[in-house]
Amino acid sequence: MCVVNRQGRRHTVGAFERLVAGAGLVVSSPAMALSAVAIKASSPGPVLFRAERVGHAEVPFTMYKLRTMHQGAQAAGSITGGRDPRIFRAGQVLRSLKLDEIPQLVNVVRGEMSFFGPRPEAVDVVEKHYAPWMMESLEVPPGIVGPGSLGYFLEEDQLPDDPAEAERHYASVLLPRKIARELVYVRRRTLAYRLELLLRTLLGIVKLRGLLSGAAEREERAATEILCSLGELPAEPTTLPVSGDRGGDDHDPR
Question: Region labeled Disordered — which residues (predicted)?
């Protein structure tokens, strides 16, 4: 049976969260400086990658990341798999340690993102591939950490190497599952769930994701119930493996 659990979902980024993000920028500045040196030594071009994303209430904003791909890589497509040759070596390390996400603290300070929430999608992905039911994920601010990206840890290796084929596979197979997981958060964003997401992210970075496999399985069942309630169950099973050593999370061409 499909179960739907919905609650009031309007949300803004509070002053305390912005203050914590500002402090995080100060504390992480040495890591940012070392990362900048590694990027410059690995690939010519800017240190920061600026990506246009769709945020809360469908308002577009510029999201900041450390660049992990060669300059001009976005011309080949906006979907990136874990084996994408456009990622330079230092970029792989930054992705695996999640250091490339640090500049998004600026977005939190500006109130465009939260620490927790659905991962923001590229404008073209939303315009071309979002079904009406997926727009619910835009009812809260996007986050640095979210259940959709945690599942994507294990799914990005399914993407074909060809950028056009990768986008088709992402849109038809991976995106519905990813958004369904994001809706689990939108409909159930308790403090305990946020702490669980943070812990699962940290365990994923150190390759110990299996320690909270039960939480991932519960989340996957909830996502399946959401897809079922919407009549959007994909042809392929939605249950994912809960072990593995993938460290990336996003599909940005950066």
Answer: 235-254
Give the C-alpha separation, 97 to 89, whole Å: 13
Q: Which of 229, 139, 145, 227 is closest to 180 using CA atoms?
A: 227
Contact residues for 149 (Cβ-Cβ < 8 A; gap 6+): 119, 178, 249, 250
Which token pair is 216?
């991932």
Single-letter amino acid code for the residue at 31: A
Measure the CA–CA gap between 150 and 217, rounded to whole angstroms. 12
Do 33 and 41 touch, CB atoms closer than 8 A?
A: no
pLDDT in 10s for each residue of the chain, 254 residues: 343 444 444 567 899 999 999 999 999 999 999 999 999 999 999 999 999 999 999 999 999 999 998 887 665 566 665 567 788 999 999 988 889 999 999 999 999 999 999 999 999 999 999 999 999 999 999 999 999 878 755 566 666 667 677 788 888 888 998 999 999 999 988 999 999 999 988 888 887 877 778 888 889 899 999 999 988 765 454 444 333 333 344 555 45
* Residue 187 to residue 96: CA distance in whole angstroms: 29
Contact 104, 113 (CB under 8 A): yes
Q: Domain extents for the chain?
A: 15-230
Q: Which strand (E) or helix (H) includes residue 50?
A: strand 48-54
Least Cα distance to 194 among 185, 182, 207, 184 occurs for: 185
**Could you tell me the pTM of the whole model?**
0.81
Measured in degrees and rounded to the nearest 5, phi and psi for residue 186 equal: -55, -35
